[in-house]
Amino acid sequence: MTIRALWIISQEKGENVSIRFSRRFSTVEHRAKSLAGSSYVAVPEESTVLQLLLTELGLSDPDKAYVALRDDCLHRPRSPALELRVDSPEKGILWPMLVISQGPLILACLPLVDVPPEPRPPLASLLSVSQGLTLLAGLQTFLLGSGSKPDGEGLVSRLAMLPSVLLQVCPLGTPLDVPLLGPPATPTGPTSTGNQKQPAWKTGLHRGRAVVNVALTETVRSMQYGNRSRQDLWDVFGTVLCKCEVEGVLPNVMVTLSLPPNGSPLQDILVHPCVTSLDSSILTASSVDNCDSSAFSGPYKFPFSPPLEPFRLCSYTSQVPVPPILGSYQLREEENQLHVSVSLKLHESVKNSFEYCEARLPFFNRDQMGVVDVKVSYGQLDISKEKNLLVWVLGQKFPKSHEVTMEGKISFSGPTHGPSDPLCTGLTAYIKLYFKVPDMTLSGCSVDQHSVQVYSSAKPRIVTSRELISKDYFIWNSTGAAPVSSGQMVM
């Protein structure tokens, strides 16, 4: 596995984003050109790479409501392996561009992929992706340490040391001392670490009380149209974040994910490169395959030797039968007045205990709000006439009926024009839901405290948690022309 190029980008608040360090490996680039043949895409200039990365990460043009490279519905970003679409001088796609960020730095590298670009191979089959992420994680720890970010002078001195560090850990673009693939060691008692070699990707050892934190978060997205001619869409994306403060050079930890008896199997599973072994049936489950009774449904065991810093152990998708909150939204316009009718219903399978839950109704491309005569059956309604926005705060629980409604009229007769949006004109409008449900996942996936095994001389304190949060959860006005989706929603 080799690296074509590497970049360290500074994104300190209040300062211009800039490339603080970059390195290209001409011998690897020559190999890339030979392997790709006519489909070869050269790595562009630094300024072009910086602009493409910032656009892909959503950090450029924050004031623009629509940026084609970032917001086009045909564009499906897949973190952490991004694709950069180069427009000039040679059009093409750079993939996979690996990116991680923490604090003031963004670290990116472009590994060499020695298989044909079409059809694009799955990430799980590319060793270069796992080892490239391992290299970035090691450099991240070297630059920022395992605690808070270093002061400005400390970061400058470590950046100055990078050329000599790369000569040792990545000579001629080939990373050394990355974790070896193979079965995990399972010692039954305390082991001596005196003969173990300190890997280059792990720059220090933990000293002190042993603590293992495992946090499972599921994010649900939804596009609901309220129209029989349009199919509602939703998807679930899960991540398991870990922070393991365990003594030893290469301590061994195992985290097990479990599903309820009737739960849908996890799919599209990606794991951190520190995972030492994995059942092949776990990686073969994909959302594009038909889910049948023979699919692997757990338990999902992840043995690994953790880095010092917090990291994402794995990610997955899940197919669930219904979204957590079903909504209906109708607008009727008469002269300069809107009749609003909203109904929200919490599905019976969802825990009725929120950390927060609110619905926002923006009204674009109209005069400023005038008279607002709107009533809600539950919760509190906040009105922002300057922003042409209704915020319906539902709080921490739905009523016993699990259903709430909003009815009323809104006139637009203010002295100024309200906010604009090129997407929402006329009756094309939406409700966006924001909610968080602690101690619950939509798939039913969980990580039990007693299922976390740590092979270490010191018995650690184990903390586990799970939560369900919303992201891009839209309910479109059924009487308006909602945007056309490009197909199944992809994380």
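(the above was protein one; protein two follows)
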Amino acid sequence: MNRFMYKSLSQLKYLLAGLVFGVIFVKAEVISWFRIQEMFRLQSFHMYGVIGSAVLVGMLSVWLIKKFNIKTIQGETVTFQARQFNRGQIYGGLIFGLGWAVTGACPGPLFAQIGTGATVIVITLLSAIAGTWVYGKFREKLPH
């Protein structure tokens, strides 16, 4: 088997994980524009429950990694670095939330939305890519 073929097959696990993650997003209705609008209008607990569950799972995972000194698949130690809070996070969070509320799409489920046939989300995907480029271009001039 040549190197390219081996590399492609080793990357297949990421495609499969993405497909499973996308199906979960669709079944949990977290890609639904209506569910997202309900959340931003404070009309439903559904999305807050999903996000809260994800935060709790993340907290539990970090605690378990630290408590049992769990290593990566390659055997490397997992380290966590303290981050300093700054005002740029507030600006970024507001821009992110505004974009999420207007488009009904968070970057995570964009591909799942496109996969369900909501092809108009391609515009949101291109906008997210453009926003990432703009951030990279002006990163040094932005408040961090």
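Reviewer note on protein two: The helical segments are 3-27, 33-40, 46-67, 87-103, 110-115, 121-138.
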